[in-house]
Amino acid sequence: MSALRSVRAAFSYFSILPVGVAGPPDGAMMAWLPLVGAVVGALSGGAAYLVSLAAPHALAVATAFGASIVLTGAIHLDGFLDGCDAFFASATPERRREILDDPGHGTFALAGFAVAGAVWISALWSIPPQRYVLTLATAAAAARLAAVAYARVVPYGDGEGPSVPMLVLSAALVGACATLAGLVRGAAALACGVAAAVACMTWIRPRLGGRLTGDAYGFTIVVAEVAMLAAFGA
């Protein structure tokens, strides 16, 4: 698959942007996930900033929160909700994988969304709207980079993880966004996001018997993105 086709496939699978239909993700597609995050984050932040020019701050926050979920087709949030039900359950790895395959959501998912949503919205409330574009782009891209980089250690499904050159390119993109968002604050936010992603993956892996699934990556991306936004808003 050419690089251009991989980019298009990544936007097709990980967002609702009108770029056509793609198959299940593989290592080449996942390498572009940070770019998808940067674009989705910038679009969400841009929409929220425009709303802030003509409406109360609360509506700008609601736009940033809602657009960040809608533009991804809620794919990562769905993984987070499934992950809450599976990872917090007192069950065997086999039973946890069965829970991940269940399309319904239970009590742990509702509780997890209540907690993550409250922190997510509070963090967006603390960030000035004029910083939304760069801040949301940085947080979304870095959260995805931290997650997919882990695929070099534990490959996604039965396929190979993203290549090292593509990860380096994605890291350069995230570094540029973080620098533009504010060097010191951006570095602190990146550190929080990476720490959150590593903690999630390390915690999840034994709960699934040593393998990671798409829901595990979705769970990690949501936690890391919220952690970075909280750091930006602190």
TrEMBL record:
Enzyme class of the recorded protein, top EC level:
transferase
The EC designation for this entry is: 2.7.8.26
Give the reactions, separated by semicolons, that this protein catalyses.
alpha-ribazole + adenosylcob(III)inamide-GDP = adenosylcob(III)alamin + GMP + H(+); alpha-ribazole 5'-phosphate + adenosylcob(III)inamide-GDP = adenosylcob(III)alamin 5'-phosphate + GMP + H(+)
What are the protein's UniProt keywords? Cell membrane, Cobalamin biosynthesis, Magnesium, Membrane, Transferase, Transmembrane, Transmembrane helix
What is this protein's function per UniProt? Joins adenosylcobinamide-GDP and alpha-ribazole to generate adenosylcobalamin (Ado-cobalamin). Also synthesizes adenosylcobalamin 5'-phosphate from adenosylcobinamide-GDP and alpha-ribazole 5'-phosphate.
PANTHER family from the xrefs? ADENOSYLCOBINAMIDE-GDP RIBAZOLETRANSFERASE
Q: Would you tell me the protein name for this molecule?
A: Adenosylcobinamide-GDP ribazoletransferase
User: Which organism is this entry from?
Assistant: Vulcanimicrobium alpinum
Taxonomy-wise, where does this protein's organism fall, top ranks first?
Bacteria, Bacillati, Vulcanimicrobiota, Vulcanimicrobiia, Vulcanimicrobiales
Q: Which gene encodes it?
A: cobS
